[in-house]
Amino acid sequence: MTIRTVVQAALLATITAVLAQIAIPLPGGVPFTLQVFGVFLGILLLGKKAFWGMLTYLLLGAIGLPVFAQAQGGIGIILGPTGGYIIGFVISGLVGGYFVELFRFNLTGKVSGVLISLLIIYFLGTVQLAYVTKSSIDKAVGIGVLPFIPLDILKGVIAIVLSKYIDRALPRAGINING
To answer: Model-level pTM?
Structure first.
């Protein structure tokens, strides 16, 4: 791993931690946050190197730093009802980022990466939510997926558009994030 990747991971973890604090508690225990937007920006700009940023984010939270939604931290959050979503962020960083890279950061790759990431996050989050709360999968989907679909799609669209502008602006500023 290069120094550049370490710095990118730290920045992505920091951005995601800040976005996690924009949280609206919802009935059912899964808050609306902008963490997924951080995941999307990571994969769209860094490809599969976003994995390192999401892993850093998870590890910072695991050791107790208040980086998760509503300034929470600790292994209890990762093992709790919403921990599957956080684990999904890490896997999405790798798999979603891989698809973005596979299509050479073009629109098809970005849309694929966002959708695949969302499916991974929803799947792992739903399974853990159902398991920890001893609920049915249907109930977990109703609490932890359905209310979020429209806004998560909007986050994906905004992240794709924003990444286009960032991709143009950084080289003009003399910054090459994928070199």
So the answer is: 0.95
